[in-house]
Amino acid sequence: MNKILILDTETTGLDPKKDSIIEVAAILVDLNHKRIECQRSGLIYALTNEDSEKITGITQLMLDGVKNAFDDPFNSIKIMAEQSICIVAHNAEFDKAFVEAKGIVLSGINNLPLAWICSYRDINYDIQTENKKLSTLAEAYSVDSGGAHRALSDVTMLAQILFKVPNIESQIISAIENKKKPEVKIISLAPFDMKEDVKKAGFRWNPQDKTWWKNIRAANENEINNIISSFGFDVKIA
């Protein structure tokens, strides 16, 4: 198997349209040999806020120090991406949205944009946990979780977790192939008392219309029906 790029961002908020990346880290990982080939992390200047500082520990003074920095950490990360077959991130949709909002495209060994694989939603872990938060998985797999909420600590932690997941290479390959299929949005019709089952199935709460929803990928109607029937509760296609 070729190498993967594990990436994480720290940001000033949750909205890529108005918030900014203040730190990015990426490591190039050889899953076959369970080793980290190289790494790059760095701060990116932006105006931060009190909430972000509390979560990340990244202060405005730290960001002011890189305001006139010559080297953008994404320059090195782009080179690392060229050796990769995909990008892996925990809650990848979040990081992907912020990276793309900066106009950055990370292309791989075939010079095409890399697929983003979510280690939260696309990977099956062999240890049952209450949730799939990175810190929870780290504890379950006996991985040091010190320094969480800094980008380099988080990508290193994720790599050490993935090293311990059986069949991780084949799971990554399957996830890449799955990303090529059309995406379908489904909405849970389960009663309230099945909320925990819905959450465990990977559905997310939309407070605007008060629904639990999830995107699935399927090549045809039969595949959609097979996925839907596996949930154990009723759903509808949005």
UniProtKB/TrEMBL annotation:
Any GO molecular function: 3'-5' exonuclease activity
Tell me which domain of life the UniProt entry assigns to the organism this sequence originates from: Bacteria
Q: Name one GO biological process term.
A: DNA metabolic process
Keyword Isomerase (UniProt) = no
Q: Which Pfam families does the record cross-reference, listed alphabetically?
A: RNase_T
Which PANTHER family does this UniProt record tie to the protein? Answer: DNA POLYMERASE III SUBUNIT EPSILON, PROTEIN NEN2
- The molecule here is called Exonuclease domain-containing protein
- What is the species listed in this Swiss-Prot or TrEMBL entry? Silvanigrella paludirubra
